[in-house]
Amino acid sequence: MKHAARAELLRVTLFVCVCSADLDTKGKVLRVLKSIVKFILLLGLLFVFVCSLDILSSAFQLVGGKVAGDIFQDNAVLSNPVAGLVIGVLVTVLVQSSSTSSSIVVSMVSSGLLEVKSAVPIIMGANIGTSVTNTIVAVMQAGDRNEFRRAFAGATVHDFFNWLSVLVLLPLEVASGFLYRLTKLVIDSFNIQTGADAPDLLKVITEPLTKNIIELDTSVIRDIATGDPAARNKSLIKIWCKTQKVTNLVNITVPGFANCTPDVLCWEEDGQIWTQENQTETINLNKCTHMFVYADLPDLAVGLILLALSLLALCTCLILIVKLLNSMLKGQVAVVIKKVLNTDFPFPFAWVTGYLAMLVGAGMTFIVQSSSVFTSAITPLVGIGVISLERAYPLTLGSNIGTTTTALLAALASPGETLANSLQISLCHFFFNISGILLWYPIPFTRIPIRLAKALGNRTAKYRWFAALYLILCFLLFPLSVLGLSIAGWQVLVGVGVPVLVFAIFVIIVNIMQKRCPRFLPSFLRSWDFLPKPLHSFKPWDKVVTAGMTFCRTRCCCCCKEKEKDEEKDEIKTKDKSLEMYDNPALTIEDEAKVTATHL
């Protein structure tokens, strides 16, 4: 395999040399200049892409940050592990940052409002919620069916890994408390001292732009969650970036001499008892420089403005990045790049490749300080077929580990009184992901998230509106429904949840048996045709959705109609072919013979 890759690289080099010989000096210079310009454009677009993700997170915090703080206030609900899980999902989706939701949990544990054992399900939920960002990024590649199929599968493999891990590990944690006990044992075994904070390398690059757009005071969300009534009237938009706290001894009145400050002068004057007390005052020195510092707008309005702008920038950058990558990665060069990224080590070390990819994912996530940024960056590469889904899976798992190591370093920088609690919560997050990897990666048969992601990718490529439905169901309606049932009481949750869960398991088992061993099923269960068509097929729903979108196709420009005709032709052509097109035809070896010099 290794020698084949070298031979391929040599052949491409010779091919480039031959093609170069056909060009004159001017043509060579123009080609080199064009490649340099494309590369610089790609770096610039990646920079704006990452900055727009940061602004998107700030926008979600402005829109839903205070709501997230209110959700965390109900300690009775948080003691229910299922409710804690969905609260973790909802809060992380609202603030678009697992780091923010984790820091809120650490603050609540440190202040005694929440026990570490109750915090573990919330951390699991935060792990699920953070995967929504790259799923949103994948939806923006819906223009091309095959690109969308690959991109959505590459994004949702993260979702399936997190949900499946929770399905196994949450009941195990409730029954045995193994994550709590394991992390408690680690904390007690080592004399851990306060250390340095995690290096924030990405902020150094993006801050010059993002801090001129918006700066937030996330401590307001933590103060609301910990029950500070004054925080409710504060704005999340930071106005003063440089402040100084000054402590002065001031005179105050008290009801009686018994209320005087100990070891401080106390006297009576004009019928009132006076004493002295240290009071801390915050002096505002320098205002921030972002564009909303002088805007007299509520947090919600600013959040909605930033949400629209960041989504527009994100979508534009993603489209341009995909087009640039498609123009740069064509022909035999692309074939070699794909081989290098996706080829395993020679036997008997093929199994090492996936674990090496995990290390790469963990290292890159540690560098950029965000699993959302890393997984969102590889999603377009999966979409255009440069990275295979099988390689993206271990990269994503490594990213999960990388984001927990960042949290561990941040926990080590906590003050002494909160160090143990914050470190234990970070370790729970770390061991949860390690346990998930042990469940769903080492044995190829157990890599169920890949098969589920491919099936979902096929479904969303055929019915593209299903991607939006999936996002709304998994990250909003389902968590909200479970939260509502939890608030109603555990009896209601069990009474509704158990029958629904049993029914879902029954449907899954019947579906599997229909495909593999239908002879063991009763005749009426060998297909779902006995049900009304809308209950077992998306086609009737697709007609409804399509009818709702006919305005664009009938009233808008004729290009919409032409696009619709082209799509119909493509559907007729691919009707008899497999939907599982997870390789980009432009990057396959079969097309090597068709490559011309212009492709380079």
TrEMBL record:
Record's keyword annotation contains Ribonucleoprotein: no
GO cellular component: apical plasma membrane; brush border; vesicle
GO biological process, one term: intracellular phosphate ion homeostasis
Gene Ontology MF term list: sodium:phosphate symporter activity
Keywords: Cell membrane, Disulfide bond, Glycoprotein, Ion transport, Membrane, Sodium, Sodium transport, Symport, Transmembrane, Transmembrane helix, Transport
Cell location: Apical cell membrane
Major subcellular site: membrane
Reaction catalysis annotation: 3 Na(+)(out) + phosphate(out) = 3 Na(+)(in) + phosphate(in)
Keyword check for Disulfide bond: yes
Topological type in the membrane: Multi-pass membrane protein
InterPro entries associated with the record: Na/Pi_transpt
Transmembrane segments: 36-56, 77-98, 118-139, 160-180, 300-325, 345-367, 373-390, 397-416, 422-443, 463-482, 488-513
Function comment: Involved in actively transporting phosphate into cells via Na(+) cotransport.
Family, per entry: Belongs to the SLC34A transporter family.
Name of this chain's protein: Sodium-dependent phosphate transport protein 2B
Organism whose genome encodes this protein: Sinocyclocheilus grahami
Native organism taxonomy: Eukaryota, Metazoa, Chordata, Craniata, Vertebrata
Gene that specifies this protein: LOC107570774
